[in-house]
Amino acid sequence: MTDAVDNDEQIKYKALLESTKAIPWKLDWATKQFTYIGPQIEALLGWTQTSWLHAGDWIDRIHAEDRDKTANFCISQSEDGADHEADYRALKTDGGYVWVRDVVHVVRKNGVTTELVGFIFDISERKIMEDKLIILNKKLEQLSFQDGLTSIANRRAFDQRLTTEWQHARRNQQPISLIIADIDCFKTYNDYYGHLQGDDCLVKVAHALSQAPMRVTDLVARYGGEEFVILLPNTTTTAALEIAERCRNIVFAQKIEHAMSSVSDVVTVSVGVSTITPAVDTEQSLLFARADKMLYQAKENGRNCIEFC
Predict the structure, then answer these.
(1) Tens of pLDDT along 149-160?
(2) Which of 73, 100, 176, 288 has the fewest CB atoms within 10 Å, i.e. is most exposed?
(3) Same domain, 246 and 212
């Protein structure tokens, strides 16, 4: 009577397992033979329930890019008696694949692994969401380094790049130059034309300044308000001054009307330039401080001009 009850319970338990989306399986560790795998495996991957005979069948049905890493990990964990999980791409009979998670329980007797019991879960939808989340996070990271109004680099991007390029310049004893450009009489422009047109002016100036540098290593950024910076790695004072003059001329050539300017009837910029070949003890803040000082010197000298240090 007891055997009949036990057998009945086993049938109910097996039916319960096979009614779930999780796919149960058992493997004899000594022979590496599957003693059971749920029939749901055929609906998921196309492989029939009876085709899962040996651990080698499982390994062969792992995507080539995941195969060695997954198999080696699961085998070593099983030999050590450690329960574990593995996410990998399981191959389908039609040549496609499904992302699955294998959850494995290791059965041991007298310190020796005798059997593995596990469940395979379809995690394809989760992986799709994870991939979308990764893409979204990358986009958000890119946006965090981009000025929201002008779409050029922002102050955060400039600060990060300056640290990197400063260290490179110091290590290789190369000059690094910085240009700071400030729109002349921008407050009066905003007051007269309104903030919407002021924003449009900032966008036009940003795009104009972006045309001045010629190398991919140069960085044009909006530092704040109407102030822009151009970082020029491995650039001498002479070369930096040429780019600064190009900046001033390009902005002037935009012919953005500025009826309230004390300098011109169109928008202009004042420019400060500094160049430093960093010594070991030179602070990187000195590069900005000198360019900023030159910018104010240019303003005192009548604006729409360039001063350099």
Answers:
(1) 999 999 999 999
(2) 73
(3) yes
